[in-house]
Design goal:
The protein has three domains: about 80 residues, no CATH class; about 160 residues, 3-Layer(aba) Sandwich (Rossmann fold), CATH 3.40.50.11930; about 200 residues, Glycogen Phosphorylase B (Rossmann fold, 3-Layer(aba) Sandwich), CATH 3.40.50.2000. It contains 21 helices and 14 strands. Helix 8 links the parallel strand 1 and strand 2. Helix 1 packs across helix 2. The chain starts with 11 loop residues before the first helix and ends in an 8-residue tail after the last helix.
Length: about 475
């Protein structure tokens, strides 16, 4: 899917691909869009902005835009009319000069050919050993892939950049014996994967990426990564819309599994030090996913406005990887220190202890600015808990006004770079005053809270069950697999 492709004179994806300086100017906030740059400067400069400007024909293995982007002197000559195209320059001079770009170095392998060269099965690259959302998602998806294909191998990847650097992750054909690669690696980490494993680990196979992303659009340069993929899987429609803006591969929604969680809490409220009769709100988040996006400070402010003098109401914040943002956590802890009815849990917990928090709380709250999916929201709904969540982004695939309490919000620009999230991209600014009212509403209208919680539980257990997700995966894999698989 191409973005703004309806205008024959200007195609945003192509303009950004051919003009990386424009992409840099957008990220610095100097222009609202690539089209604005084109109207103000690019058109009179003769910059390439549409396929109609490319003077073909070109052979199928030729990438005209890449050649012009990597050879700015040739691009300038084409704009001046000195050369009809980059391809003609390459034939006359560029090949002999060993100029970069142009000939695509990677050819996607037809599925039938991939499974003639390799056995049917899946090499599943992912964060299988990590106690993070991406790890949980990879483990549950791998179980289904194993069932569907019969043959699958989990290939664990390191998570921290330091781990990538200190461990020698090099291609090993014996560890990746099958014809299908599933790369459960977000696009920001894919270059690290390629650096350590090499593009040869993808050659001759069917390659499917599984990406999560939390902003309204992907970065234009990710489009080049999608050329390596036969298909991109994403966990929600929100992510699909973002990835489709830049992807040259088909994009399919394959939701995460939320099923077969521990059935009974072995811990009690007393074990956690919670007052037995208190009404307990819970929020679980990972600091590594950026404290700005997760927005616990917004929840603390809303809770303070609603219940600062109520010993019978408790807010529990469970988080991990605090070391990833010591300053942000310190600011949050200072705010929480003034609230005697707030408890902080920063320990890493095994699944059973973590799930006991969901089971023992009375209501789950997620004041996020954006979510690619919302695994913790879905987990609380799985246990039949009322949920208060921002009415925006990935969770809207399974939350609505009938099964959750949705926080009003205003779309706002990211104020400053936060992790991989760039300034001037857009996410939600949840309304703190409305969140405060919803905290009261759940307590004051218990019957309505129970009704919505029951609907939410039914939604999650129906739509995000192993059986439901398995059916989606079978459908998506069918075009790639041999008939006898």
């Amino acid at each position: 899917m191409r973005w703004f492709g309806s205008n024959p004179d200007f195609e945003e994806w192509l303009y950004l691909e051919a003009n990386p300086d424009v992409e840099d100017a957008l990220l610095r906030g100097e222009f609202l869009s690539a089209r604005e740059h084109w109207l103000k400067h690019g058109r009179k400069e003769g910059r390439i902005a549409s396929l109609a400007q490319l003077k073909g024909p070109f052979p199928p293995e030729w990438n005209e835009i890449e050649y012009l982007r990597l050879n700015p002197d040739v691009y300038a000559a084409v704009r001046k009319g000195e050369w009809e195209s980059g391809y003609r320059h390459w034939k006359a001079h560029g090949a002999a000069e060993d100029r970069p770009g142009g000939l695509n170095p990677f050819r996607q392998t037809p599925p039938a050919e991939a499974f003639r060269n390799y056995p049917a099965g899946c090499n599943y690259y992912g964060f299988h050993l990590q106690d993070i959302g991406l790890g949980a998602a990879a483990r549950s998806c791998f179980e289904i892939i194993s069932k569907v294909l019969g043959n699958a191998v989990a290939i664990p990847l390191p998570w921290d950049t330091e781990d990538w650097e200190k461990e020698p992750f090099r291609p090993n054909p014996e560890k990746a014996p099958y014809g299908l690669n599933l790369l459960h690696v977000n696009p920001d980490a894919l270059p690290q994967f390629l650096y350590h494993h090499g593009v040869d680990s993808l050659r001759g196979r069917v390659n499917i990426g599984y990406w999560a992303w939390e902003l309204h659009a992907g970065y234009a340069f990710w489009g080049r990564l999608t050329r390596l993929m036969h298909e991109i899987w994403v966990p929600s429609r929100y992510v699909a819309k973002a990835v489709e803006t830049i992807s040259e591969a088909p994009v399919a929604v394959v939701p995460h599994v939320v099923d077969q969680l521990p059935a009974r809490a072995d811990l009690s409220r007393e074990d956690w030090g919670w007052p037995p009769q208190a009404f307990v709100f819970l929020y679980v988040f990972d600091v590594a996913s950026t404290i700005q996006r997760k927005n616990p400070v917004g929840l603390l402010r809303a809770f303070h406005a609603a219940f600062y003098d109520r010993p019978d109401v408790l807010l529990v914040l469970k988080y991990n990887h605090a070391q990833r943002d010591a300053a942000g956590i310190a600011a949050m802890e200072r705010l929480a220190a003034g609230l005697p009815n707030v408890r902080l849990i920063s320990d890493a917990l095994p699944l059973e202890r973590l799930c006991s928090l969901y089971q023992l709380c009375d209501c789950y709250v997620s004041p996020h600015r954006s979510e690619g999916f919302g695994l913790t929201i879905a987990a609380a709904m799985y246990y039949g808990k009322p949920v208060i969540a921002t009415g925006f982004s990935g969770n809207m695939d399974f939350t609505d006004a009938s099964n959750a309490f949705l926080i009003d919000y205003t779309l706002a620009a990211v104020a400053e770079d936060a992790g991989e999230y760039r300034k001037n991209f857009v996410w939600a600014a949840p309304h703190t005053s409305h969140l405060s009212r919803l905290l009261h509403e759940v307590i004051e209208h218990p019957e309505e809270a129970r009704t919505r919680a029951a609907r939410g539980q039914e939604t999650v257990r129906r739509c995000l069950s192993r059986a439901a997700v398995e059916a989606v995966i079978r459908r998506q894999l069918a075009p790639f697999l041999p008939a006898d698989c």
